[in-house]
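WARN retry 2 of 3 for item q-0093 after timeout on previous attempt; input resubmitted unchanged.
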Amino acid sequence: MFSTITLLVDDTLAHKRGRSVWGLGWFRDAVASTKKRVATASGHNWVVLAVAVCLPGTGIPILALPLLARLHLPGKGQPSGPELARAMLAEVLEWFPHRRFTLVGDGGYAAEGLLQELDERVTFVGRLRSDAALYDPRVPPAPKGKRGRKAKKGPRLPKPKEAAQKADRKRTALGAWVWQGVEVVVYGCARSLQTVAYEAVWPTVLGYRAIKVVVVRDPSGRMRDAYLFTTDLRASEAWVITRFAWRWAIEVMFRASKQVLDIEAPQHWSRPSVEKLAPWVWSMQSVIMVWYITAGYESAEAREMRELLGEWDSEWSLRHMIQVLRRAILDATIDPDSANEAQLRQMVQTLKSWANLAA
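OK item q-0093 returned
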């Protein structure tokens, strides 16, 4: 029996300027934006679908391997981010017709363009609007003799933010709308959280498919209230919280592609170069990470580099993986026993030239 594959979807802004650069637009800059102020910047907005990879035996996500990327073009009539994500998801479903998937996305992807008529093999976990219009999935029986269309949903349910307020006012530990304690490990830390869960339908986004809503509160106050949901009605509250926290891996992947691989640096402007460069960089990022997981982690070069790691360094960072790969390539290429004296002298001169260029 195949295990479920967890996919992560998100978008990132590759900053770029220039009159002749194809595909440029003004988009929200997640790094510069704050809770009170939304900042925008010029650049290419890429929607990326990645695979979450866990440390064997732990279930803790350590890496997000970029799988597919689509450019979100500005202007009316262009596919939205959720629509591009839906197209990439459909492509992956064709690749693996017998596998099941969990798709994790932020609030921007809890949208009709992605979730309307979602494939049955896909379970979605995402963030819910605090003011989402939710209804009871249980449809009350229609009175006999009543004409007109039959109801497809039950009465209005509290919005996620209102559900938290109802739980705050509850004076007993019985019945509905009561805070329940849950122990989870999120973002590398064990936390004791409180949850309120209930089933609902969200017609404007998922039609009349029932979802499980999970309102999350951190009693310590270190985290703001979160409003999550999943299309798996049998999922536990702890599973929903931890699986949504896996989304952080794709944020780390974006940061590494910008800081380590310098994906924003190339000065390209034509359509072919714009469409090819960023996906190629993310493909190479996946190749490096797959090599490190399957072969590099147990190599002599990796053991040597682990001894040099500082307090804040990580052996699972892209920078560390590239350093190990570079050493492995040099060790496999430079063999003193297979060269004569003249060749060794030429090799030393070449290394000196490389060092001077790097300086």
